[in-house]
Amino acid sequence: MADELSLEKEIASLPKGYISRKNICGKIRYYHQWTENGKKISKYLDDAAAMELSVLIDRRRSLEKELRALKLMLPRGGYTFKSDVLMGKALIPFIESVRGFERRFCFAQLENYLKQPTNGKVFILYGLRRTGKTTMIRQAIASFGGYDLERTAFIQTKPGISLGEINSDLKRLVSHGCKYVFIDEITQAEDFIEGAALLSDIYAASGIKIVLSGTDSLGFKLSESEELYDRCILLHTTWIPYREFEHVLKIKGIDEYIRYGGTMILGGKHYNELVTFRNKKNTDEYIDSAIARNIQHSLRFYQDGGHFRHLAKLYEKNELTSAINRVIEDINHRFTIDVLTNDFKSHDLGISKRNLRKDHRSPNDILDRIDNGKFVEGLRKALEILNKNEQSILITDTHRIEIKEYLDLLDITVDIPTEFIPVKDDRIYRTVITQPGLRYCQADALVKQLLRDKEFQQISAKERNAIQERILNEIRGRMMEEIILLETRMAYPDKEVFRLQFAVGEFDMVVVDPEKITTEIYEIKHSRERVKEQYKNLLDREKCNLTEFRFGTITRKAVIYRGDDGCDGDIEYLNVENYLRSLNVNPF
After folding, report:
1. β strands within 46-166, DSSP E
2. Of 393 and 396, which is predicted with more confidence?
3. Within 10 Å of residue 501's Cβ, how many Cβ atoms?
4. What is the pTM of this model?
């Protein structure tokens, strides 16, 4: 049986009325008669036209009968949707505001799903809050022409709704001829994970295009492995590479990406006035609502909470969200400690001392006068004390491992390996937070808090500010390394990308092509200046020989920094923004 909207459209295209026969002077005459605006109209027909029109009128009567039967099957007395539903022309105000927005690069995958022949699968927009999921839905609807728009519905799921109630709404929409249904916040349905197959096996299988999105993206990952196995297409939105951040938001510069990268809502006319990582309070709220509650909500409803494993006791005590927050903070605290204890001891500190001393606007010798060892040790101790003071619950290594597993599933954390020459038995990994704004804001707030310590209050405000800027510059430099390593790894999945540590010194990034047995070596510097010390490791013959012996012929030596592209002898200088723009990144 056809749907209501299709029947009404075809009926409207067919002639109304009936054909009358009159005997005039012994001859049969045919007339098409119908009523229009209260007046009866009659039109003479020849025999051929009468026969053709008779077939069309019979078709109309048959369809009208079918429509009456269909309406008898629908709820009487008006139907009240269980969800908030917009359909057809009612969608126009909903989509108008996004018409001028740039599209995310991954939008093409959603567009292909909507345009391709039906395949019995649902499409899932999977990612954290404020990464453009609902905007992509609105952009998809805005791309429809008039006829397709009339057959489109958007469902905003209400908290606490059941999948059965959503099913009732879907039945009603399909009966009205809907062919495209977008369901936002579907994971608010408490039984979604367990019953999601309904959407693919009934609706998608019958030709309806179903697009789902929700902030509890872990629920989609869990349902993919269970109810929606091989019946869904997942599109990840959490990670936003630099090139896409710049293109969509029209915000340029690696430092801007470090400060705010991770969401699609930075400033002005670009998506939203709110800046997610503007301050510690906003960042903590984002971690709590977009990450911690995401994990807790999904685990609560998956297998009746049976997937909590060792996290069950924390959940029962209502401390799981706090524990997730603590693990994320701990990852960032360890990152900050590592920056302070490692980078501050490198030759870069000497470069910074010289640069500060020679600064034409405000020369400063603070880094010459401070006791560097005492300073770093004081900050390190303060960080560790801060961890202990803030820790309200005991989190074991088992808890951390399980929470980290879920952070990896949500694409929030990625581990970048470090290789060693001479070879070590154990590999070590650097945990990268894929939303740089989140990491930077927490590190910034942590440094500011540390510098309020009574020991550092003995230093003048000007000197404290110089120390703070020095630390933050080190953090930005370390984060720039992480961003380049992560994006290079994602751009070249068939290559090996890692840091290479020697007994003394390191290469910040090594890219190995195992098929060609070739190697590229890089230094990464958060600097606009070209200084020979930056690439001394790249020219170290012993390090290069050891690298070629283990990984393959070195075909490129380059420094990635914030200055202009160029060369210094055999060493390439690559502007960081240009380098990141050149990468064809395929997120996760």
Report:
1. 84-87, 122-126, 152-156
2. 396
3. 15
4. 0.77
